[in-house]
Amino acid sequence: MVEYGDIRVVYRGGSKINFRKPVISNDSRFLLCASGESVKVFSSVTEECVHELRGHTGQVTGVLLRPSNHLQVYSCSTDGTVRLWDFTDGILVRTYVVGYPVYSIYASLNHKEVVFIVTPVCVFVFAELFQLVAVNLPQTPDQLVEARDLSAVLSDVSSNPSTIAFGRGGEYLASVNNLKMEIYFFKKNKSYSFSLREYTKNGGKNTFTCIACHPKDDCVATGHDDGKIRLWRNFKQKKEYTYSTLHWHHSAVSSLCFTPEGTNLLSGGVESVLVQWRYNQENQKDFLPRLGAAITHVTVSPDGALFSTSHSDNKITIIQSCVKVSAVIQGLVKGENVTTGLLVDPRSKALVLNGRPGHLQFYSLQRDKLLFHLDIVQQEYIHEAGLEQFEVVRAAFDASGLWLATVEERKQKSAELELNLKLWSFDEQTQSFVLNTTVSAPHEARITAMCFSQAADSQTTTLVSASRDGHFKAWQLGLPAHTDGTQEWPSWSCDFVGAYHGLVPRCCCFSADGSLLAVGFQEVVTVWNPTSWELLTTLSQPPGDVRNLCFGQLSCSKYLLGSNNKKMVCCWNLLTCSLEWSTSMDVSLLLVDSRSENMAAFCCQDGSTDLFVFKPSEPRPLFSQKAVCSGRVIHAVFTPREVMLESSEESSQWLNRSQLYFLTEFMDLLTFSTKAEEEKLMASSKQLVIDDTVAMTPFYLLLGKHRHEHLGNEESAERTPLPQSSVAIKELLQTPAHVLPATSFLCSMFAKSLLISVTETSFMNSLSVLSAVAVKL
Amino acid sequence: MASFKPTQIPDLPKLGEKITEDTLYWKNYKAPVQIKEFGAVSNIDFSPVSPHNFAVTAFTRIHIYGPFSQEPVKTFTRFKDTAYCGRFRSDGQLLVAGCEDSVVRLYDVGGKAALRMYKGHTKAVHVADFTTGRYQILTASDDYTCRLWDIPNAVELTAYQEHTDYVRCGVTSKLNRDLFITGSYDHTLRVFDSRTEKSVMTMDHGQPVESLLLYPSEGLLVSAGGRYVKVWDLLKGGQPLVSLKNHHKTVTCLALNSSGQRLLSASLDRHVKVYNTTNYKVVHNFDYAAAILSLGLAPDDESIVVGMTNSILSIKHRKNLEEPKETSKPRRRPSYRVFMKGKNFVPKQDDYFVSKPARQHLAKYDKQLKRFNVSKALDTALEAWLRRKKPEVTVAVIKELDRRGTLKNALAGRDEEQLSRLLCFVIGNFFDTRFTPVLATTAEIVLDIYQCVIGQSAVIDRHLIHLQKLLEKEIYYQKDLMEILGMLDTMFAFSLLRKESVDQIMFKSKMIKYEPKQPFIVKLTTN
């Protein structure tokens, strides 16, 4: 790995927040969820991310409130550790090393200082066999604790955390796996198992999907693949158990949850409808429909006031007592396929890509927050598996950000392809895009590429779309109809249809000033004049279909670069219409930075991707890095920086004006960051925590203000050093509150430590310190 | 919780001509009243005074019609031969007419016999008109002359012999009593001043001149001859301003509407065209049954009168705008009280405000779609007024059902009446290109579902056979169109031979080989 030292690949946001069930804190103020390698703490009111609990080195697989202390939370991860956090302050309290990858975590009030985790049966064999293990957490004041006291409870469990639940305050434990349900009673130390046949008479699948236990009653609710919910009772005997069936969902029930008092049962599934069943009056049910996407998890806050549902589109919805959606926490939506690629909105500098089905999402990179979704398809989404839906497949912005073009398509098995080209104009008043023109069936086959003329100052905007039907079409904005008041907005219409020998155009590109259009027809690159639509010249290259085309920028604007699928990159000089240079490189992505002459090429080799940054006019690359990430890079984009960096080093100069973001095969959004940038970030974060001797409390705010005034009045007054150097105070402030001895015990020691000076100022200081201690305790 | 997104009704472009203010204005006429005359109607002239009777010159008679009567109010029959150009004087009291026998006759509108006869021309007189001075008559004849006559004495005042062919049209100036203009078959227009011996201005139209018209301001002159209508600027010494060629046969007649904003021209090609006088674009077009010889517009455009070669006089009266309003009573709306209920309530300071979400208004079919009632949604979309007035809504609902994958369910299980209604809709809108893809899938699914019951109901069978015939017809039609397209492409390809290289022509000729798609004819025949 060639390291340039000061440039490294950084993981930039957008991780899944719907991976595991979120947890709502006891006071309903916070919502905690596992997100990649950290736990995020969101405010349930403002939707803001309050803390990010970092520390795990593997994916976090479970979050759980500590039953004995509701301000602390356990998290488990595949790195084989269970960590205990204080989530209000965002402090890591303790790390328990288990030694095996942990897939989920459970605890109950009955079992003090014991957590139950799901681990693979055998670490060496890569088999899908998991077991439930009780872990005794040793009570030591150390930060890092080895927790090796494991005892197996149940074998053959599922790794899905929603298949195991504690019943009735921890008296028993129920687990489902495939067609078997097992209930383990702790007192009797005995387990009963119940199994179902695979298919019912009507052909529904009986496989268990999730389980929930009633908090007050001996009742277990299970969800099934065919959408049924079974309520099991009287399961203390092996033979005389009974169950009743509830059926509303048409596909698999993905999550079940009882409210804390046990009066209601909540269920969710693919339909994206939250169903609330009354316990014991199951024919009465309430619905909360159209929550946006398939529900993956349902949780209830401990006081029962808030529900939260996680959705498959990386969203958590917070619902107030099954009536009103009060908050929506939305992560970067990553569908199976980002077909539009990565775009940058020239106005908001937001990253634009496919969002939830039929939408485009605008994602702020600076704040790692989803700004909004733009509804492209404008149709009711039918939540049904196997239904062909309209998908946004292409999108393009013009240089000023005034126009957005989108292509949506729906492919049916038998029927023709349905295509719509939509053009959106930016409305200054509403600050959003408004549909201007819809062209139904703009082409006869799939659209392969689409681009706007890049010239920012030109009067007419041109859009070019290339399609598999062998044509490319140029669309232009018509003149405003001034005759009548009926049509205020001008609409787009087709200006030119071009073709070349019946070959299929795969890519198209406008030059920076909009005076040339290059269209790659399989092996041939054609250059057109966009004003007269004249074919100016054709550039051929060694065999292989052209995959990417881009014009050079600024001083290199005379060059046209193209890459083909036969591992060649070619650079033509447009002044002489001849090949300037070519090199053998399997380039999967070729992109140009609009702010500089630089170009970036991603090459795919042996399962990893290399990056080369170069200028078309220079033979040597400016920067190259092997194995940027594992897997292929699917999409990449240069985003302009708001503040230019002042880097003098040659290797990092290309990052001065813009940043390079890229999306890998595994849907990770990565970027490059320089050392200088990181130092700056570190400095700013340090500044925030610099004055940390005193906790930020309301009391401090009052007193601190008073103290500052006081200091302002008596500037000449001698300031004695704060007693922070005192060992006693240091100990007092740095040890976590819960391990401190009783206040009465501390008091005398503390008072003694204050006896160093008797001046007024130090008294004030000590008072403030006291206040901090008081709040902490 | 997102709200339900209603079905998108595509805003389809209107087919056919665009509706403008002009089309609305000129379409606002009743069905024409047709009156059979004795011969070709050669001239129509409206009386300048109320009640604006009009004189219709046809064969040997001049009929005077009232504004609303279908029977002539008055008839002048004492002509020896074909009469021409019956025109009123500006006070509406006198009428002058030329005749094939070269005698010009002057009538009192109230009387019967001619008051005066003006003899002097040697051939048929096609033009006769009063000058603005009211005491002189202008006539022009096939003997190439035009003359001015004194009315009371029946004496010829002046004769101009400048034209070299038949003089067939002429107008007198309304502002200057000495000025008049004549147009002749020698292709010229001449402006005469009775105070001088010779014509003061000559313009060459290029075709035999059939009709002349002066603008109210008299700065512009319009002449019609051959297929051309030309506009001349008299103040610039007869400079040609515009030449319009919108007819494909000789233009016979010209008229201005009451506001002077629109120019009308009638032609032997059976059309009357309306031009905008600012840009001289055709804004409207009337079709008639036969070649038009004469055209008249009542003051305020109250009626359009057209005379044709098949001796039919067609009168179109303007529709009265107030009439339809009286017939339909306005629907009674809920009272003011209902709307204002609770609206003016001012909350007190401590009141807790419970916001009520705005209720989303949904169309009937959307309400059914929201509840996943697919058959009912289709039923509501197929309601009579919706499928007749707004077929795009019905098609959009069918498309939505197709998108949801439930179109088959919605179409299945229908009885004879419902099915025939559906088939009627499909047949009626099948060949609207905007709807064809959707309705084609619908027809296929209907055939799939109901193929086992074909033959049980005569009504359904008739519809299906009708559909099959229509499809066959359409396919032949499309084939023909493709052939024509192919021919055109070859022609274009050869016309571009010099410009383009050979290979591009090869490409263009490849495009000719179109194959029309025939997905369903196969299916229908198998059934």
Describe this structure in words.
Chain A: It is found in: Nucleus, Nucleolus. Chain A: WD repeats lie at residues 53-95, 246-287. With 777 residues, chain A is mostly beta strands. Helices cover 9% and strands 46% of the residues of chain A. Chain A has a five-stranded mixed sheet, with no helix packed on it. Chain A is globular. With 527 residues, chain B is of the alpha+beta class. Chain B is built from 13 helices and 28 strands. In chain B, strand 6 (83-88) and strand 7 form a beta hairpin. Chain B is elongated and about 95 Å long. Mean pLDDT of chain B is 86; it is low at 502-527. The chains are: A mainly beta (777), B alpha+beta (527). The interface between A and B is medium-sized, with 28 and 22 residues.
> Which runs of chain A of at least 5 residues are low in confidence (pLDDT < 50)?
685-695, 711-721
In the sheet with the most strands of chain B, the strands line up as 1-28-27-26
Count of helix runs of chain B: 13
Biggest β-sheet of chain A, characterized? 5 strands, mixed
Q: What share of the residues of chain B lie within helices?
A: 25-40%
Proportion of residues in helical segments of chain A: under 10%
**In what range is the share of β-strand residues of chain A?**
over 45%
Kindly name the structural category of chain B. alpha+beta
Q: Mean pLDDT score of chain A, rounded?
A: 80
Mean pLDDT of chain B: 86
Roughly how many Å is the radius of gyration of chain A? 31 Å
- Please report the total strand number of chain A as a whole number: 57
